[in-house]
Amino acid sequence: MSGDVWDEMRGRQERVEAALRDLLASATTDTPPALAGAMGYSLFAPGKRLRPLLAILACEAAGGTAQRAMPAACAVEMVHTYSLIHDDLPAMDDDDLRRGQPTCHKKFGEALAILAGDALLTLAFEIIGRSYGPRTAAVSCVELATGAGAAGMVGGQVLDLEAEGRIGPNPFPEKGGEEDIPPPSFIGKGVVGLGSLETIHRRKTGALIRSALRLGVYAAQGERDDGVSPDALSHADAYAAAFGLAFQVTDDLLDVEGTADKTGKRVGKDAARGKLTYPGLLGIEESRRRAAALGREAVAAAGRLGSDQLARLAEYLVSRER
Known about the structure:
mainly alpha, Farnesyl Diphosphate Synthase, two-stranded antiparallel ribbon, 16 helices, 2 strands, globular
């Protein structure tokens, strides 16, 4: 099944790759070469372009085309790549391998890696603003900022660091004692249940996946006089909720059972850091059952959205090896 999915997706993947190269080349004509090089190094590292594909498939399901979705798809991938660059930094996840090659800070140094991530993040919004009409651009920028920001992906990363005890209960000691600032929600308690763990990952992983799908719907329908279909957004959200968690469960399983050759990144690091994961909380077999159940939920939501391709991606997800 997985081979069939990627055979079907290859044309879209190639179009995403070409569009990313064109957009980055155009945006960096007056950019310091070192910065452009670091941006391109991480953006064009080998990958399946999953989030751009989600945007494209949602756009097609909502009555649009791949061409219409392409700027949004590329913007989401730039935000995703920025997040990987920053997550890999020593102050965060401290990884030295990503997508089978040295991480950006290992190749270019920490300062340039941070700036390359910043540049990709801001470029994403520029692309949306230049590529769509005012309604679509406005709602898409708000959606992408929400999914990537303090209540979404960045907030999820903070909760993840709190759960590891790597952010203290009073990050602003100059403002007074700890009684002046409520402690972060997980400090001193750990993540003690499935609900808490999934709260982290609905933000850290799931929020940007949700935004990718929503941007696809907006690209298809954003300039219509009757507005965007609430049903299309509702079905996209349901798919994203299940797909995002299934992605994280399988990612955690790969960290336990995978190899660096297959995954393209260092494995076993979560356990080495004492990080709570799905296998650590539920065990391997129950984690597999959880992933399968979430995969079925995503397939059902894809059916309501009217996308066989999104359904097949969800089926692939629970059996992936990288």
